[in-house]
Specification:
This protein has 411 residues and is α+β, with helices and mostly antiparallel strands. It folds into two domains: 3-58 and 267-410, no CATH class; 62-259, no CATH class. Helix content is 51%, strand content 18%. It has helices spanning 3-13, 19-60, 79-84, 127-130, 150-156, 213-220, 239-250, 259-262, 264-289, 292-302, 304-312, 317-353, 375-400, 404-410, and strands spanning 64-68, 90-105, 108-117, 131-134, 139-140, 143-144, 146-149, 167-172, 188-193, 195-199, 208-212, 228-233, 254-258. The strands form two sheets. Strands 1, 2, 3, 4, 7, 8, 9, 10, 11, 12 and 13 form an eleven-stranded mixed sheet that branches. Strands 5-6 form a two-stranded antiparallel sheet. Helix 10 (292-302) runs parallel beside helix 13 (375-400). It is elongated. The two termini are 28 Å apart.
Length: 411
């Protein structure tokens, strides 16, 4: 058996002449235990929130978007796109024509994005999960309907149950059709459309009015071209590989974005928030870990005679350093392992029973704090504790043999 490890283990469980050493060691273990458990629980909660937010965003964000590299519109009826829409990997192929427009309801008006979509858009069965009023319906026989974001609904006070008071949409006419009329209203295409429902995701999306593509074409006087093509894939299809294949075929005239690229700011915010919390809690954990210096210093004082005897028997400074290095590592790593186990148990119980509830004002899918476990977080916490535990223990071990020659003389 490794001699330093054996002696360190005996010191860990052996009785000390001074009870304060046991108390300080226990405080060190508890500090690391609490810090490790708190860190893994907080990181798991952030993972849960990230999954909830991304799930909501992914409901309305397609897996792949194709848009023109220059200009606003392009022709979706080219030979390449006609072949692309026939691929078996594609679940939905949605043509989108969008532009800002003036929205008016009763005596209130607001500027919003009018997004015209083709029929494949409604293949997304998750749209009902973000609908907070009415239903997500765009067409009914020959009638057109709009589904608006909650921001528009709140500002315009739209009543989805009133079919006799439709939403008015104003869009500037194209210059080629400009008549030069004295009446400013003649410079706009004005259409009315009843509102069938209201959806809510996030501020960036809640200022959108989703309408049928044929309505958007009439409003924007665009008979053939589209602003973008939104693609969702069948289950099991790798979106990144599919995106790479399109990029290699389509050329430089188009931009292809996956979900991360479409919501780059969101992903950056979620990542930066999680790392900020990790850094803050790590500083607290470091303070708890460095309590081990006091514990080992007291232990060195308690074992002065043992150190002197080992030295006189031929034990070098390296062996004595390793004894107290192992001692400190065992104290802190015991707290870390127990903390990770308790953190894991707490997260599993929260996932199953949802004991910790959030405020009723939180507009999320569930009223319990979401939790998602990732093995990388456990490895990160373990490595963090290991590194700083080694640093603190090594510092204490160096102090323990600093005056070993004086101990030999005293013996």
């Amino acid at each position: 058996m490794n001699t330093p490890f054996y002696i360190a283990r005996r010191y860990l469980f052996a009785k000390k002449s001074t009870n304060a050493i046991n108390i300080i060691s226990a405080i060190s273990v508890v500090g690391v235990f609490v810090g490790s458990a708190a860190l893994i629980i907080i990181l798991s909660v952030f993972n849960g929130f990230e999954e909830v937010v991304l799930k909501m965003f992914n409901t309305i964000t397609p897996q792949i978007v194709i848009s023109p590299a220059q200009g606003k519109t392009f022709d979706p009826n080219s030979a390449y796109f006609n072949e692309l829409r026939k691929k078996k990997d594609i679940y939905s192929f949605t043509e989108v024509l969008s532009e800002n427009a003036l929205l008016r309801y009763n005596d209130k008006q607001s500027v919003g994005l009018v997004k015209g979509v083709s029929a494949d858009y409604l293949k997304n069965k998750s749209l009902d999960s973000i609908t907070i009023d009415g239903e997500f319906k765009l067409e009914n026989k020959s009638l057109n309907y709009a589904v608006i974001g909650s921001a528009i609904q709140t500002f315009l006070m739209v009543n989805t149950t009133d079919p006799f008071n439709p939403l008015q949409v104003f869009s500037p006419k194209k210059r080629s059709n400009h008549t030069g009329s004295i009446n400013p209203a003649d410079d706009f295409t004005i259409l009315s459309i009843p509102v069938s429902g209201v959806f809510e995701v996030q501020q960036d999306f809640d200022n959108i009015a989703v309408v049928p593509l044929r309505f958007a074409r009439k409003l924007l006087e665009e008979p053939a071209k589209v602003s973008s093509i939104e693609i969702n894939l069948n289950d099991g299809v790798d979106a990144d590989k599919f995106k790479a294949a399109i990029e290699s075929e389509i050329g430089k005239d188009f931009e292809i974005k996956n979900r991360i690229q479409q919501n780059k700011v969101l992903y950056n915010i979620l990542g930066s928030e999680k790392w900020a919390v990790y850094i803050i809690l790590t500083f607290i954990l470091i303070i708890a870990i460095f309590n081990i210096i006091g514990s080992l210093t007291m232990l060195v004082i308690d074992k002065l005679k043992d150190i002197a005897i080992l030295s006189s028997l031929g034990a070098g400074k390296t062996l004595i350093k390793r004894i107290f290095l192992f001692e400190g590592m065992m104290i802190t790593m015991a707290g870390c392992v127990f903390g990770l186990i308790i953190g894991l148990i707490f997260c599993l119980l929260q996932q199953k029973f949802g004991w910790i509830k959030m405020s009723q004002d939180n507009l999320v899918i569930t009223n319990a704090y979401p939790v998602a476990l990732k093995w990388k977080d456990f490895l990160l916490v373990f490595l963090t504790v290991s590194v700083f535990s080694f640093m603190a223990s090594a510092l204490s071990a160096n102090l323990s043999v600093k005056k070993i020659n004086h101990l030999n003389q005293d013996l």
